[in-house]
Amino acid sequence: MDGFDTLEELERLEELAEAGNLDEQGGAALADATGGYTFAGKKEGFKSGFVTLVGRPNAGKSTLLNAIMGKKIAITSSTAQTTRHRFRAVLTREDFQMVLVDTPGLHKPIDALGEELNVSALKALEDVDVVAMLIDAGQPIGKGDRWVAAQVRECKAKKICVLSKTDICNKEQIAKQRLEADKLCAWDAMVGLSSVTGRNVDAFIEEVTFFLPEGPAWFPADMETDQPIEVVVAEFIREKILRTFQDEIPHAIGVQVESMEYDRKKNLDTIYAIVYTERESQKGMIIGKQGRSIKRIGSEARQDLEALLGSRVYLDLRVKVKKNWRRDANQIRRFGYGEGLQV
Prior knowledge:
The structure is a single chain. By secondary structure, the protein is of the alpha/beta class. It contains eleven helices and eleven strands. The longest helix is centred in the C-terminal third of the chain and has 18 residues, at about 290-310.
């Protein structure tokens, strides 16, 4: 805050600005120090708000979030219920700040983990400015979509219907899906897009921005997610397991980062992480013959982590068994899944 001797002086000028009692000289000094923000981090005409992405598993929520951010923030895979965290990404531009909340896919739960993920997704519908429901443009709308839409209808937020994966659909399919989706809710807007090709992703951002209220920047401009880096690292590792084993054992897998240390001189992050399974047989599959599977997982994860962290990475992966952890609500939350409550 150049130009101010004390934080108290800055706060005094902000209070005067908010009350409308700031003179021209003080206003110029405040604007210069805060980059044009008039008070409490708020720019004239600046918009900000929270946007929740909801939908059935595999509707494309995390892929859309990554496309909006222009980089990989959330993990993706073809496995249902890949997302286990209520994940926030922050997109800040000159005239707005959009806080995107990615949620676990809403589904019929079969264990405590599924119940916790549903609770997390439903809580994300509370106190937000915009709710965007994703519907796969190429799949028939079913009971699950109608159930999700019923939850969305109860929200006070603005409602946007997103027809995802339009790159693998023809015009007739998309037109038919628009008509069917229109019956689900009184949408404030509808957008067909492809997160893979980027088609209409900017149009979606524009629609959301239109509905955001004027407000302050809630997070620093250079912040991209509110998740601790250890959580992001653990998720990147889990993604490689999902992609390697697909439907064999993914839901029985939990990943926890034990420690991370950065050596500035070597530009090296040393990461120790544990992969948890529910049974010894699953542990054997993850490790693989002569350790080949765990080496492959570590190698693939390390490439993504080096891009994420901007450093070289030494990744130490170990595998342990924690029997039936998906049925233990306390263990689920220790992993940070669902609401990520600490117990």
